[in-house]
Recover the amino acids of this structure.
């Protein structure tokens, strides 16, 4: 159930999370679960929306900006951002777990906000700045959040880790001195099954201060 | 008698028992770790399952004609056929593949399966109704210890109550599944598994049952699993979807990925049996426990399951009169799989909760009551020590109050405890350790790291033995072509793999020493490896750096072999541990919401290898315990016969803000002489009982069944 209503313009659509910290509730409000998400549309989408152009079911050409690089791809409009990243671009750091905006394993950062990439269409991500786990470290140096994940043993099987790292980075990006309550609230859209939260909380708390 | 294989004495350990960063930590934190789900092979097809919507029925037709016309369709294989009886909703019927994930979904949705429906039964809590539906079978009726009637007569206080806990499902974040690439005679399987070495034979056997495929040799199967995203006891076998995936790969000539969807994962690939029971328990005035009698029942699906070992921990057969009857309820739900410490978490609830109620009846502090009866356990000294230590950590003396004596406000605080035990006997393992002329060292075996720290523990063992550092060691696991090692289940991995690695490393070092001895002009027995050097103990000036020592090998590579068990291989491991946990909770009696203030855990495991990863196992167990104590439960609907919450919105798991403060104490030093014992199961047993007891202490009434959801808490208060 996706609606194609035109709206005000780039950056003015529903935010995928509030500006300061984020919680699962606002996260879900942001993606409009159950009601069908509109999202901030890319330029091509806006043009289509303005003319009420219906796209699909055949693939459409889009360009995605991921970690500062542009990628051209042909996707069916129903393809989610997580599936485009994983299946078409081999960016497999983000994981598909619940596939419905609950667990956060697919978290990437879009225009500075953490987003459940399982609940954003790839075509909606056009024209937006997408950061994935693959883009936040260099060969020589990990991001402070990643460093602290290792220091605090904030991982077991590791399947939820990339999502938690990205959620942690989003917290650190917005607030250099988060309280533990801020950290918990910012992480509460991510679920770990092995039970690594003790290390994760400490890691994000420390990393935010370090990267400030 | 001491042997060269024994663990170094405490003062000689530079790495064992210390804190170390997880070796595979950076790769996981970077998102570079490749799981089965992440494999994207050239030309790979994607497969989906078609499963049964009916809980019980017979297949009368499978129509794939529309599916075969779907864009991108590449093939399908039947898992079950017309005439087969379906015993649970979600039962696998066929696998179908296409060029993309989207097309595979379209194709799966276009398959029409027709059933003749048969009567189903999915509920087990109401055993009377299940009996009326002819679903109940006796499974156990054991009487042990002193005469039961006499014991009841001698009891000054008795408690009779109903206790239980529902079904939970494993919900591994990486679902079950694999990528299979069948090329010529080679079958490469990237499987999400806890049993790398077992899968080749399992898959070959499954394929060979299909006449159209013929005999498949286990040796043609190569399993590759460097990382896997959670198992908890549910990923030992190739399963129907693995066999179907291989058949699709053979049929299409392409690699095929088949990973379960979330709802399939929750319905059919996990499941810890429920347990409910009426328990009667009695003690003398002074708190001496005299009798325990139980009638319990549970379901593990259509075929039933084992019964919980009750009475649990407190089970001395000479002094405690005990009678345990168990009934199996057969249900049309996905079959149970092993969950961390099979049957023990349930047994803990069915024993520790009535015990806490009896302490309240006796007007005794449960810590005193549990300690007083420690002689009824197999390890009285261990438990007394651990109860005291844990009580200190949680602040029991200051915070505990009599049951229900929690003030007038709507938020009531309470404390509770539970004890547990587990074996953790090491599994069989073989290991090859290589020393290269350039100084490189590798540890090689067909084991796996489920996230518990196998890469790290094996690095520590080799580095400790050679006097090197963790980064000097390469650990190669996760391939079935390496020396065979056991499946990771029942807390058997760390004991088995560290022993085979230690023996292989000592044997490899002996060979190196004999080469070095010659060049230094000393006896090999006089040589020691420490701090990156090999030197003569009698004259430390006679010394070579590790790399220079290895250069003496010329172009020869040393391969040291080690195995577990090995009668002459020293005392490296053991089985049997204790463990105590205490919970501090707050309960809002107006909303019924329970929140965790703190949980403290004390755990012995013999010799700790990696302290930090050991603690992580306990933290993880406590968090999983909070999950099944307060949130998660598989809910089945008798009308439709299906699971109502096979997703992660309504199958509730806690987040980072829901777990309170957790404090873990690993017992080190006291039991090091026992050697290594597994850690995966023991701490996963007690959290539910400890939390339930804390809630009872807080609100003054027992909430009979877990999870302790607000509705159950409010109902218990209402009924009080």
């Amino acid at each position: 159930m996706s609606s194609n209503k035109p709206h005000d313009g780039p950056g003015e659509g529903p935010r995928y999370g509030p500006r300061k910290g984020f919680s699962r509730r606002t996260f879900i409000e942001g993606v409009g679960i159950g009601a069908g998400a509109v999202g901030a549309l890319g330029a091509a989408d806006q043009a289509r929306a303005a003319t009420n152009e219906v796209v699909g079911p055949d693939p459409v050409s889009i360009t995605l900006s991921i970690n500062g690089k542009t990628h051209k791809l042909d996707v069916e409009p129903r393809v989610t951002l997580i599936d485009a990243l994983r299946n078409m671009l081999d960016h497999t750091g983000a994981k598909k777990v619940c596939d419905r905006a609950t667990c956060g394993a697919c978290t990437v950062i879009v225009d500075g906000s953490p987003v459940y990439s399982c609940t954003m269409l790839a075509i909606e991500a056009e024209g937006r700045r997408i950061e994935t786990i693959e883009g936040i470290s260099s060969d020589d140096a990990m991001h402070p959040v990643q460093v602290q994940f290792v220091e605090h043993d904030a991982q077991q099987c590791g399947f939820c880790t990339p999502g938690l790292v990205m959620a942690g980075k989003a917290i650190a990006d917005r607030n250099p001195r988060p309280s533990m309550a801020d950290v918990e609230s910012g992480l509460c859209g991510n679920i770990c099954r092995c039970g690594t939260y003790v290390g994760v909380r400490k890691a994000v708390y420390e990393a935010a201060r370090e990267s400030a | 008698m001491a042997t060269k294989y024994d663990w170094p004495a405490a003062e000689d350990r530079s790495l064992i028992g210390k804190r170390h960063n997880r070796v595979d930590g950076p790769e996981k934190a970077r998102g570079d770790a490749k799981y089965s789900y992440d494999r994207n092979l050239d030309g790979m097809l994607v497969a989906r399952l078609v499963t049964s919507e009916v809980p019980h029925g017979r297949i009368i037709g499978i129509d794939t004609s529309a599916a075969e016309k779907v864009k991108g369709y590449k093939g399908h294989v039947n898992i079950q056929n017309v005439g087969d009886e379906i015993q649970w909703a979600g039962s696998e019927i066929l696998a179908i593949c296409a060029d993309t994930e989207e097309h595979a979904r379209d194709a799966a949705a276009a398959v029409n399966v027709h059933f003749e429906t048969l009567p189903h039964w999915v509920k087990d809590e109401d055993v009377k109704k299940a009996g009326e539906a002819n679903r109940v079978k006796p499974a156990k009726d054991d009487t042990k210890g002193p005469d039961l009637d006499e014991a009841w007569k001698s009891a000054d206080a008795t408690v009779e109550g109903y206790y239980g806990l529902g079904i939970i499902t494993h919900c591994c974040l990486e679902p079950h599944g694999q990528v299979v690439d069948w090329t010529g005679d080679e079958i490469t399987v990237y499987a999400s598994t806890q049993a790398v070495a077992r899968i080749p034979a399992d898959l070959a056997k499954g394929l060979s049952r299909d006449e159209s495929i013929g005999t498949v040799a286990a040796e043609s199967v190569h399993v590759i699993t460097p990382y896997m995203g959670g198992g908890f006891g549910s990923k030992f076998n190739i399963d129907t979807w693995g066999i179907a995936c291989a058949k699709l790969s053979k049929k299409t000539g392409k690699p095929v990925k088949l990973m379960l969807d979330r709802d399939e994962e929750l319905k059919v690939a996990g499941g810890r049996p429920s347990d409910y029971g009426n328990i009667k328990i009695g003690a003398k005035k002074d708190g001496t426990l005299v009798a325990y009698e139980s009638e319990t029942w549970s379901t593990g699906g259509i075929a039933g399951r084992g019964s919980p070992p009750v009475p649990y921990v407190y089970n001395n057969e000479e002094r405690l009169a005990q009678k345990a009857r168990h009934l199996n309820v057969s249900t049309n739900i996905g079959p149970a799989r092993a969950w961390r410490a099979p049957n023990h978490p349930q047994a803990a609830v069915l024993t520790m909760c009535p015990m806490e109620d009896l302490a309240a009846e006796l007007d005794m502090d449960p810590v005193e009551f549990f300690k007083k009866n420690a002689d009824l356990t197999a390890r009285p000294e261990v438990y007394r020590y651990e109860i005291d230590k844990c009580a200190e950590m949680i602040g029991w003396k200051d915070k505990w109050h009599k049951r229900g004596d929690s003030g007038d406000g709507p938020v009531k605080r309470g404390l509770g405890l539970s004890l547990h035990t587990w074996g953790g006997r090491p599994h069989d393992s073989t290991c090859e350790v290589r020393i290269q002329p350039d100084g490189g060292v590798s540890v090689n075996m067909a084991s796996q790291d489920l996230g518990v720290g196998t890469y790290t523990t094996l690095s520590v063992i080799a580095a400790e033995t050679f006097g090197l550092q963790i980064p000097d060691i390469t650990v190669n696991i996760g391939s079935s072509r390496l020396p065979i090692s056991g499946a990771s289940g029942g807390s058997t991995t760390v004991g088995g793999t560290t022993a085979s690695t230690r023996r292989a490393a000592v044997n490899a070092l002996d060979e190196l020493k004999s080469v070095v001895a010659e060049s230094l002009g000393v006896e090999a027995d006089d040589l020691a490896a420490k701090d990156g050097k090999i030197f003569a103990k009698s004259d430390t000036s006679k010394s070579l750096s590790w790399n220079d020592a290895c250069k003496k090998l010329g172009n020869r590579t040393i391969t040291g072999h080690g195995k577990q068990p090995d009668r002459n291989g020293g005392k490296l491991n053991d089985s049997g541990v204790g463990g105590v946990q205490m919970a501090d909770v707050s309960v809002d009696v107006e909303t019924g919401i329970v929140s965790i203030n703190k949980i403290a855990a004390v755990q012995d495991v013999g010799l700790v290898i990696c302290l930090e990863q050991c603690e992580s196992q306990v933290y993880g167990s406590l968090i999983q315990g909070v999950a099944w104590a307060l949130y998660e439960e598989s809910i089945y609907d008798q009308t439709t016969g299906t699971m109502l919450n096979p997703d992660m919105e309504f199958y509730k798991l806690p987040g980072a803000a829901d777990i309170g403060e957790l404090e873990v104490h690993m017992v080190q030093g006291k039991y090091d002489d026992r050697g290594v014992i597994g850690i995966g199961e023991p701490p996963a047993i007690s959290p539910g009982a400890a939390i339930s007891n804390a809630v009872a202490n807080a609100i003054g009434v027992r909430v009979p069944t877990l999870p302790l959801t607000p509705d159950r808490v409010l109902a218990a208060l209402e009924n009080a």
